[in-house]
Fold:
Amino acid sequence: MLTILHRDEQLIAIDKPAGLLVHRTGIDRHETRFAVQLLRDQIGARVQPVHRLDKGTSGVLLFAFDAGTTRRMGAQFAGNEVAKTYLAIVRGWPPESGSVTHALSRTHDDYGNALAAVEPQPARTDFRRLATVELPCAVDRHPTSRYALVALAPRTGRRHQLRRHLKHIAHPIIGDATYGKGVHNRFFQREFGCHRLLLACVALEFRHPSTGEDVAIRAPLGDCFAAICGRLGWSDSARPVAAN
Structure:
């Protein structure tokens, strides 16, 4: 049963669990469970996603009940008018705050097909460091291992933007099999029983497409993510934060 975070006549939002695809793609042809179909079956109505979350990312996922609402919300996302806040656990200690403005190119479409080379597109992610820890474990080449909890606010919507931007500044997200570092991912698997990407969309803020009123939707961290934050002493820092 999917957790419903918000519902009105035009929109519905769920707390997507990590590991669940939004819809069918060619990349994961073996998958049989999709958020779109599960939600349709649960509420007995057709829905259309107005944005996407990666399979490994948990948190707020927004759907519309009709094509007009989908189009209007899609325009808000495309125009970067939706404030999005993510939490992530990363390797190392990034600066207290900053912006990553590394341009990104799209190499594959939504079905896993290679695309012709295109010019990299501008991309920006703002970040804030919320908490840090230094563990007495030689995970990599140092005698201790540092990790941080960060809040991320993507100002553009490029494919895998947050994961690629964190890799670019040498603070990859824990659990990222594509852009992360395997030795740290395996440490979190052994030490915390964590087999997921530690990235969650905890807040969406936007203008309602029908009423024009401001809407703010929050999602708690999933059990595994929250448990790790608890063990690292980050429970207060990891409470849902407002998009900024």
The longest strand covers residues 125-135. The helical segments are 35-43, 67-78, 161-168, 182-192, 223-231. The mean pLDDT is 90. The CA atoms of residues 78 and 157 lie 7 Å apart.
